[in-house]
Amino acid sequence: MLSSLPYPSHSHFLTMLESAEESYPSVHSAGRMVMTDLLKPEEIKKALDAFAAETFDPKKFFEMVGMKAMSAENVKKVFQVLDVDGSGFIEEEELMFVLKGFSKDGRDLTDAETKAFLKAADKDGDGKIGIDEFEALVHE
Question: Which interval of the chain is the signal sequence (predicted)?
């Protein structure tokens, strides 16, 4: 169960996310992209609404928000927005809150959804998703 792992709490993660948003309000002022620089807000909302009560399917979600049609370069920019701690990887604890990276209204993934997402993307088995693994999952 994820709650037993020694990772930051949900509130700590949200504080990190909010701090990143305050520090990087737009691509123009700070050099860091925000999700709406890359994706249409109405497509994000539609995809989030579709998975509000349904089991999260990352491939379907990425297609709904328009990422499958994006260039590899732009998908990697989305990855960089989602990599809240800037480690170069999306770790399991970040993955649980990945939908909040698309919108503050995004829900948390369940433990099962988080593990399924990680399993689908983590091709080298290191327990985290690298930028190339993320891009490959989006374009699968």
Answer: none
